[in-house]
Write a structure and sequence with these properties.
alpha/beta; 16 strands; 39% helix
């Protein structure tokens, strides 16, 4: 098939492109080569871009341009829509930018498809676990509950767990696709909006739609330049610079870390399988891992001993816990993650060891949030 990947020079998109090419598909990529991800002079220095250079048809452009969309859509059968601004914290103060790229960029695509001739048969969207906000829990009364977002009042005194008024301690559960949608960040809101637009509009145009709610994706090729998102890359850059790691909250907050190869495999099932049409799927490992464990695993794998400080600080917009229920994607598409967290971390750190050490700009991103009252 002829497949367009927006944001296809990025981490997930470039890995997907290479796998699709190996399966005989023809790939076109529309990407702006954002300096935040690729660095300056990206066409020369970006490892991600150079991995796909001369293997795909490459269009340097942006999803906020109707002309760029029209150029990229010509002759395509499938769109994999990755192009987006990402990062929970940054989205809380670069609001117009996130809305413009993520929501308006998607609206332009759908407007073209609704009003102009095209050959698109399927759209696959990279959605996000961020639209769930806090995850799914069982109350002390044995009821399924979805806690509200945490407040500064509680977190200022070191109480970071989620609460339900009138209930005792909550039991964390895997979040399934029918769980409550209540994002806690602008980024999450934009992903919710993207998903709703595509899943609503595409079928009315006779286009199949598939949405994948990715958990925290990591692995070789992940941008080590971006200080705004990607906890493994952020911690790795700090460790490689022999800087200490400052962990938010109490270090017990958890995420579902899913390896890049598993994400690519799941996405290809969505592209190639009719059973995926007009469905929404979680993609993760189905296992929560706390941030302190992540930091210690990275330090052990790099063999560089840096101090870990539990700061008690927090970012507004962050969630406490969320991990994926994978029953739907297993039953409908036969997907099961193959790479364990321990094996994935080893593959990731081995790759990082072969890269140049990037400048640690994480403090700059924190200063930006402090200045806006979003980092406490």
């Amino acid at each position: 098939m002829n497949i367009l990947i927006t944001g296809g020079a990025g981490f997930i998109g470039s890995n997907l492109a290479l796998k699709l090419i190996s399966k005989g598909h023809t790939v076109t990529i529309l990407d702006s080569l954002s300096p935040q991800i690729h660095g300056d002079n990206a066409e020369v220095t970006s490892v991600l871009y150079n991995n796909i250079r001369n293997k795909v048809k490459f269009i340097r452009g942006t999803v906020t341009s109707k002309q760029d969309w029209e150029k990229a859509l010509d002759g395509q059968e499938v769109i994999v829509h990755y192009a987006a601004e990402t990062g929970t914290g940054q989205s809380m103060y670069e609001i117009h930018k996130y809305v413009d790229v993520n929501i308006n960029g998607t609206a332009i695509l759908l407007d073209i498809l609704a009003n102009q001739p095209h050959s698109i048969k399927k759209i696959v969207l990279a959605s996000s676990r961020s639209l769930y906000g806090e995850g799914k829990y069982k109350s002390s009364e044995n009821e399924i509950v979805y806690p509200k977002h945490r407040t500064s009042k509680d977190m200022d005194i070191g109480d970071f767990e989620v609460r339900i008024e009138g209930s005792g301690p909550l039991e964390l559960m895997a979040t399934d696709e029918e769980s409550k949608i209540h994002p806690s960040s602008v980024y999450g809101i934009t992903k919710q909006n993207q998903e709703q637009m595509i899943m609503t509009v595409a079928p009315t145009l006779g286009i199949a739609a598939v949405s994948f709610r990715y958990q925290n994706v990591y692995g070789p090729g992940q941008s080590l330049k971006n200080p705004y998102t990607g906890i493994l890359s952020i911690f790795s850059t700090q460790i490689k610079n022999k800087n200490g790691i400052n962990i938010f909250e109490d270090g017990k907050e958890t995420r579902d870390f899913v390896f890049i190869d598993d994400v690519v495999d799941a996405t290809i099932l969505g592209i190639e399988s009719e059973d995926a049409n007009n469905e929404i799927f979680n993609v993760g490992t189905g296992e929560p891992t706390d941030v302190m464990t992540v930091a210690r695993c990275l330090i052990d794998n790099y063999g560089i001993d840096v101090p870990i400080t539990i700061t008690g600080n927090y970012r507004l917009g962050d969630i406490r816990h969320n991990y994926a229920d994978l029953k739907k994607i297993q039953n409908k598409l036969g997907f099961k993650p193959k790479v364990s967290f321990q094996d994935g971390i080893k593959k990731f750190t081995d790759w990082v060891n072969d890269q140049e050490v990037e400048v640690d700009n994480y403090a700059k991103s924190i200063d930006e949030m402090k200045a806006r009252g979003l980092y406490k």
